[in-house]
């Protein structure tokens, strides 16, 4: 049986991590966001905001991490695997920032495919900034738009998950995976 790879995406502060954690607590295999680990490691090396200081290097590291997760998803043994962000997220963030990137970024988006994409919309009531999230709410809205555009460009039709409790959001996702 083929493992179905399901992406949970959205701008910063939309509740992705909480939804992924709830799915994991329900027994689903989940891959967590790789950017927070990369950001923490960069800070330990004295790079305060790696995405701003070295955007191409940061994005290459993200791409490598997301490709690794995609490959590992095949070996989980489960029929459903959830990923906190996918390969097209990297392109979306580069487009948002206006930084140039090599053609390989779009090529790998067409090589490492997902079965479903769910996008969580901006939600001002739950938005908070932290040590790894430095974007304002307005920037988070703009990033959301770039994410939607990137997934559409790469052939997906992301399903928007309505705002609501974590339980309602996870139920919505699971109910739409028929």
Care to describe what's here?
Residues 5-169 form the NadR/Ttd14 AAA domain. This is AAA family ATPase. It holds the Pfam family AAA_28. This protein has helices at residues 16-25, 35-44, 50-53, 55-73, 87-97, 104-111, 137-153, 166-175, and strands at residues 4-10, 29-31, 80-84, 116-120, 159-160. With 178 residues, it is α/β, with parallel strands linked by helices. It has one domain (4-175): P-loop containing nucleotide triphosphate hydrolases (Rossmann fold, 3-Layer(aba) Sandwich). It has a five-stranded parallel beta sheet with strand order 2-3-1-4-5, with helices on both faces. β4, α7 (137-153) and β5 (159-160) form a beta-alpha-beta unit. α1 packs across α8 (166-175), α4 (55-73) runs antiparallel to α5 and α5 crosses α7. The mean pLDDT is 90.
Brief description of this entry?
The chain is of the alpha/beta class and 178 residues long. The chain contains 8 helices and 5 strands. The protein has a 5-stranded parallel β-sheet, sandwiched between helices.
Name a few traits of the molecule.
178 residues; alpha/beta; Rossmann fold; five-stranded parallel sheet; 50% helix; NadR/Ttd14_AAA_dom; P-loop_NTPase
Topology:
Layout: E1 4-10, H1 16-25, E2 29-31, H2 35-44, H3 50-53, H4 55-73, E3 80-84, H5 87-97, H6 104-111, E4 116-120, H7 137-153, E5 159-160, H8 166-175
Parallel strand pairs: 1-3, 1-4, 2-3, 4-5
């Amino acid at each position: 049986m083929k493992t179905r790879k399901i992406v949970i995406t959205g701008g910063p502060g939309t509740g992705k991590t909480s939804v992924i954690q709830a799915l994991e607590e329900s027994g689903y295999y989940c891959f967590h966001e790789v950017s927070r680990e990369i950001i923490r490691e960069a800070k330990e090396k004295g790079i305060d905001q790696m995405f701003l200081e070295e955007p191409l290097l940061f994005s290459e590291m993200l791409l490598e991490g997301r490709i690794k997760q995609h490959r590992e998803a095949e070996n989980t043994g489960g029929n459903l695997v959830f990923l906190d962000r996918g390969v097209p997220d990297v392109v979306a963030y580069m487009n948002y920032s206006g930084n140039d990137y090599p053609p390989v970024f779009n090529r790998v988006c067409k090589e490492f495919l997902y079965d479903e994409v769910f996008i969580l919309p901006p939600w001002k009531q739950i938005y908070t900034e932290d040590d790894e999230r430095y974007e304002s709410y307005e920037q988070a809205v703009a990033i959301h738009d770039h994410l939607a555009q990137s997934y559409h460009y790469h052939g997906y039709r992301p399903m928007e998950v309505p705002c609501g409790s974590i339980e309602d959001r996870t139920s919505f996702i699971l109910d739409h995976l028929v």
